[in-house]
Design brief:
Length: about 150
Amino acid sequence: MSKKTIITYGTFDMFHIGHLKLLKRLSKMGDKLVVAISTDKFNEVKGKKVMIPYKQRAKIVKSLKFVDKVIPEKNWEQKVKDIKKQNVDIFAIGDDWKGEFDFLKEHCEVVYLERTKDISTTQLKKSLSNFMSIPKEDIINAFEVIEVLKKDFE
Ligand code: CTP
């Protein structure tokens, strides 16, 4: 029986549980999972500001036991070439892209998977920004209150 290859594309910045669940589900759809990760330059083209540089994002994803190969995503146009080169059977991506890649159906199967709820890199960046804007004194005070409360329970 021939082996099934899956390909997916994304930035995978500030790697989170939504990314992990998606990649795990993708790996179960076939035998080989190829992940194309957007380079820093391509993210600039997309208007996305990344926190973690490409080399590190690629290293993190490549180290997952269910990811077989990582390739760079350098532009919008490379997908057909990648599908042919990697012998891809299924192109799959989160459903925030629903319909966007239907034009690839003449080359392979196209699947949109449901996203994990309530988490995204954008949300993490916002939380970080809120967190950083908390005045230092408030954080120190909060820890002092915790210490007092802890003593009450001793
Ligand atoms: N993804 C997912 N569930 C989430 C977040 C992302 O399944 N909660 C999927 C996306 O649909 C995509 C892949 O993970 O197929 C990579 O998405 P990426 O855009 O890198 O992550 P986001 O967290 O969506 O980042 P951003 O907020 O910058 O768009």
